[in-house]
Amino acid sequence: MQFKRAGVIGAGAWGTALAQVAARAGLDVVLQARETEVVDSINARRVNEAFLPGVTLEDRISVTGELADLADCDVILAVPPAQHMRSTLTAFATHHRAGVPIMLCSKGIERGTLKLMTDVLAETLPDAPAAVLSGPSFAGEVARGLPSAVTLACADEALGEELMWTLSAPGFRPYLATDLIGAEVGGAIKNVLAIACGLSEGKGLGRSAHAAIITRGFAEMTRMGVALGGQAETVAGLCGLGDLVLTCSSPQSRNMSLGLALGQGQTVEQALAGKRSVAEGYESAPAVRELAARMGVEMPISLAVAALLAGETTVEALIDNLLSRPLRAERD
């Protein structure tokens, strides 16, 4: 199969950055935007002023407001917020051709059903081969062509290899995996953990605490990935540990910046006010907490963040509770 025309569903910062990647890789790209202002901005100035200002888009990218305009694409990159993935794919179903791969590029766990995005895809577009793209990547850096490496997971190794070569572009290096569950779990849970790192930063707890959250958070992520059927090796790669380190290390991360604001004394409502881009950790935290209870997986940091976001505890109580937990062996 030859991929020559890519459709990107969702013109937020990450969707727009991936459209840039696909165009630089030599594909003709149709970028679908829900917002009329985004379509107008790109058509008039070749810039997505709302979500990725300052980046001039490649000439091979066209923009549309209609999902129907993606019907003749050879591969689809689905990049809506995770909590809108089901409704978006359902709306696209009438325009999807059987056998056209769907690459899931959003990170999260669906609230209510507690399902991963691959489960959502299987229920909405059962005739679509699935792939997952996840890894340490800030949209602005990727869009500008700065070096980045990501995991591309696909159960069909031959298809995955073809997709890997198709999306490989100057500065953008995909690494192939076959473990979709491990790739998804890492991307979803690291957003919740990034809020915890932001809290630590906002409270001025120091670099030692920051390192401890990343390390113990990685243990939580690995436990959940394995419990769901993923591989620890996948979670230890770019899509898990790599993404966790990046997201927990810079206020560029929407999730870390949310935690930073909360640690500095803002309420959840104040921290989220005026934000157009979605902090996926805020959306996924309740689902992560429910999933941990269902699977019997111990995830104290993630559960503490979920309780804080739900208004059930304070930052100070959260810190006290985590530090007063019983001592145990590190491997537990």
TrEMBL record:
Sn-glycerol 3-phosphate binds at residues 107, 135, 137, 190, 243, 253-255. It comes from the Bacteria. It catalyses: sn-glycerol 3-phosphate + NADP(+) = dihydroxyacetone phosphate + NADPH + H(+); sn-glycerol 3-phosphate + NAD(+) = dihydroxyacetone phosphate + NADH + H(+). The active site is at residue 190. Pathway: Membrane lipid metabolism; glycerophospholipid metabolism. InterPro entries: 6-PGluconate_DH-like_C_sf, 6PGD_dom2, G3P_DH_NAD-dep, G3P_DH_NAD-dep_C, G3P_DH_NAD-dep_N, NAD(P)-bd_dom_sf. It is found in: Cytoplasm. SUPFAM superfamilies: 6-phosphogluconate dehydrogenase C-terminal domain-like, NAD(P)-binding Rossmann-fold domains. NCBIfam families: PRK00094.1-2, PRK00094.1-4. PANTHER family: GLYCEROL-3-PHOSPHATE DEHYDROGENASE, GLYCEROL-3-PHOSPHATE DEHYDROGENASE [NAD(+)] 2, CHLOROPLASTIC. This is Glycerol-3-phosphate dehydrogenase [NAD(P)+]. It comes from Brevundimonas kwangchunensis. The gene is gpsA.
